[in-house]
Amino acid sequence: MDIQQLNSMSPLRVFEESINGGLGKGNLGVIVSKHGVGKTACLVHLATDKLFKSENVIHVSFSGNVEHVINWYKEVFREIAAIQSLDDAAMVYNSILANRVVMNFSQEQVPITKVLASLESLISQGSFKADTILFDGFKLTVASEEDIQKIKAFAEKMQLEIWFAVSPVRPDVVYDDYGVPNTLEKYFDQIDVLVALKYDDKEDKVMMTVVRAHGENVPKPAKVALDPRTMLIAHN
Amino acid sequence: MPHDLLGMRNIGISAHIDSGKTTLSERILYFSGKIHAFHDVRGKDGVGATMDSMELERERGITIASAATNVEWKGHPINIIDTPGHVDFTVEVERSLRVLDGAILVLCSVGGVQSQSITVDRQMKRYRVPRIAFVNKCDRTGANPYRVKDQLIEKLGLNAVLMEIPIGLEDKLQGVVDLIEMKALYFDAGASGDDVREAEIPAELLDEAIAKREELLDTVSMCSGNDELMEALLEDPESISKDLIKECIRRATIALELVPVFMGSAYKNKGIQPLLDGVVSYLPNPTEVENIALDLDDKEKEIVLKSDDNEKPVILAFKLEDGQYGQLTYIRVYQGKIKKGDTLFNIRTRKKFNVGRLVKMHASTMEDVTECGCGEIAALFGIDCASGDTFCDPSLNYSMTSMFVPNPVISLAIKPVDKKAADNMAKALNRFTKEDPTFQTYVDPESNQTIIKGMGELHLDVYIERMKREYKAEVEVGKPEVAYREAISQRADFNFTHKKQTGGSGQYARVAGYIEPTVAVSEDEPAKDYEFIDEVKGGAIPTEYIPSCDKGFQAALKKGTQIGFPVIGVRCVVNDGAWHPVDSSDMAFQTAALGAFRDAYDRAKPVILEPVMKVEVEGPAEFQGNIFGSINQRRGLIISSTENNNSCVVVAEVPLSEMFGYSTVLRSLTQGKAEFSMEVAKYGRVPQSVSDELKKAYEEKKKKEAGK
């Protein structure tokens, strides 16, 4: 199938529907889960979907090295292309690469203002017209409220969708039924869309729940879940 | 010296430019008694380091060509290949790596793992070269060997482990603590720290030494095959013998599972002797590395060579050098041994020759020997060959595996200033092309100009300089030109008849079929440059003329009609045709295929491709915006950017044509604080505007030539 067909059939369309039509520019979205449940795969799938729609994506990573992130994209792309038997996969892959930049920081040393300044210089001086920024491995649960406000203001100013993938680092974190850690509560007002991932023993699947969508608390199951083999978002 | 294969080491010293590997080589020569005084690369005495044999290198303070040197350390013969560090000369590095059994990866204690170290490390991984690391320049301000070790783990993915910890750092560097012997080593005895003074570990370092030793033991015991150490560690850590630890480190290092890290300062003569001990203790001898040759008599079947003097000899010529006495050929003996007067067979040229003068090299001086045993590195005089050639016993037909040689991406025209220069230039080019497979030359039949091709601006610059200095060949240099390629973007059918009737026998051939772009099967299997498929049925074209069609297409592909560069990525399919019993010939079908291709080419929507470089720019984070901007202005694509402390590394893909003069621009943008390296990443399509410009320039050039 070609790329248009793939986009229209993508489980991401269902996902967007369950968050009232997508995140939207100027807004912050958060995917939260315990460590190792599959939030990075989920985030990269989200990014790849944007790339398929010819949107520009900046992937900001704080933990892994650049190669590691690039390999994630390679893997996720390979899985999607194989599942949907995408035409000219090698060519599509090469063409979407032009729309992605990976930025790597170590959070301990680089303050958020510097991260945002670097992003801005990439967007303006590097002429990279970003639509979406993904923060992978940002320690949101220990970040200060001020940091989040700065990021939110940046999203509004630059007209960006910003997604975070978050795993709590502290061992004493308490999770609710949907997989939302209590350490995240203080930011609820800042978050426009909150999606929680939680491994379900009975289903042997990672379930996605939309906890907040555009200012409302609406704990409802998304109509998609993570495929246990590929860890990609799939039709439920 | 008896031929001691087990004690022998063939090692290389590889590193980032300016991390001090030439100084390190020099100190190794000094401490192993090969030289009696040392000079520095940029020394004030003007003598220069002994390893930099070429005058030019001395001037630029960089090492371009590898010099092979034989030294002896505590009874172990060690051959050292000093490898060049600049990215433009990576073929030199790769060719050297091929003959090594192990390597020292030199890192700067301040700069740490830099982009060049990453390139070099990738090359070492490709050739499976076991390595130990040496963190140099620990006497510099900001030295931090611990951070460098962490970078080896994070950036290069190596299982690096400290073998030593420093006693003092920066200007207080005094020595190191050996974590296996648990002794402090000072290098303050003798004229230049010639004798190592052992002492107790300073009290303030004891806790750290114990902790780092534990770390060392833990890491080593986790490597495969080291269960004995693991058990001993669990049961009674006190009982572990030093020999067991060393044996385990050696096993893991040779299996590429571990990289022992040594440290010191070559310039200040600190830490060199323990590093040499490390080379002997942990890097493999020639018998411990598997070397493979291809048997040309048996469908290139892989043959594992035997490191045994009594076997028939198999030898690789890995480097040529033009000396005072003619061509010097550096060789490594992989199997058997050779003596003066032996007859050998050059597999490529299919010619036999006799071994004449045989020498062992010490940078610029040499020592005559009568024989060269297995695993050894030596040099031959007066042999006509190219680098990369295999020499065998005349009864064998083995070829050492072909080495990875990238295609040149840049070319420029050179013109000798007078007749004498022309003769000298010819001599120089003949030599250089033999020495370096990535340096190529030809005479353009249309412009009658001599064109040289290579891997980058600096690469060609160096050869032009060498022509002047070593061969007294003054040349005028043209503007560098990028090696473009042409390609097609869609299928086009053809049905072409070639007919000529001019009395006597005529020419007749008709070919029909189509051309289409080849596609990449997967990432590891890129699109083929050319493919010919014969689908002719029922003898429409007699089988004897099918190869003629193939030849005709290949001739057409050599020069595309858009801008005169080779056409790549084409599948030519012939499925019909016609012939004539008298007028058809090999030539007629070749001409028909050529005509058919030219005819279909315009309909196949041809495009122009250009080499795209992977560029890595490293500099202070404050200049990140400027770096982004400079890449953006050059039609570049930013792939990634990494920020750490106050430095940033930006990786981008930029067309080569936009990179001319980038070093000057970058210097002014960043107050000289950033540096960059690049290598060919791929061929990419040029944008329409550039394509139009290139075509216009080509038309003009053709007109000008026609008008001559």
How would you describe what is shown here?
The complex is a heterodimer of chains A (236) and B (708). Chain A is α/β, with parallel strands linked by helices and 236 residues long. Chain A has one domain: Rossmann fold (3-Layer(aba) Sandwich). In chain A, 35% of the residues lie in helices and 25% in strands. Chain A has helices spanning 3-9, 11-18, 39-52, 66-83, 89-97, 112-124, 145-158; strands at residues 28-32, 57-61, 100-105, 132-136, 161-166, 193-200, 205-213, 216-226, 233-235. In chain A, helix 3 (39-52) crosses helix 4 (66-83) and helix 6 (112-124) packs parallel to helix 7. Chain B is α+β, with helices and mostly antiparallel strands and 708 residues long. Chain B folds into five domains: 9-288, Rossmann fold; 292-400, Translation factors (Elongation Factor Tu (Ef-tu), domain 3, Beta Barrel); 410-482, Elongation Factor G (Translational Gtpase), domain 3 (Alpha-Beta Plaits); 486-602, Ribosomal Protein S5, domain 2 (2-Layer Sandwich), CATH 3.30.230.10; 608-690, Alpha-Beta Plaits (2-Layer Sandwich), CATH 3.30.70. In chain B, 28% of the residues lie in helices and 32% in strands. An eight-stranded antiparallel β-sheet of chain B has the order 18-17-23-14-15-22-19-20. In chain B, helix 6 (203-222) crosses helix 7, helix 10 packs across helix 11 (457-471) and helix 12 crosses helix 13 (586-601). Chain B is globular. The relative contact order of chain B is 0.08. Strand 3 (100-105) of chain A pairs parallel with strand 36 of chain B, so a sheet runs across the interface.
